[in-house]
Design goal:
Blueprint (H helix, E strand, L loop, with lengths): L1 H10 L5 H13 L5 H12 L20
Helix pairs in contact: 1-2
């Protein structure tokens, strides 16, 4: 959650109140990824058999628009 807190601190530096409100609404709407989510993706890639090549993994919160 430290990253989310840091992003929220940066939000306070936005001088346009309308933009600031939109950014804050976005951050409040996203359930941030946890370190366990990333670890599970890495474990998946590392535990594949030699015949499998994991070239890319795209990870984002499921409730965040792409």
């Amino acid at each position: 959650m430290e990253t989310l807190r840091e992003a929220t601190k940066l939000t306070s530096q936005i001088s346009n109140p309308e933009v600031r409100q939109q950014v804050e609404a976005f951050y409040n709407s996203v359930d941030p990824l946890q370190k366990e989510d990333i670890a599970a993706a890495i474990a998946y890639a590392l535990t594949q058999p030699a015949r499998v090549s994991v070239n890319e993994i795209l990870i984002s919160p499921s409730n965040q628009e792409m």
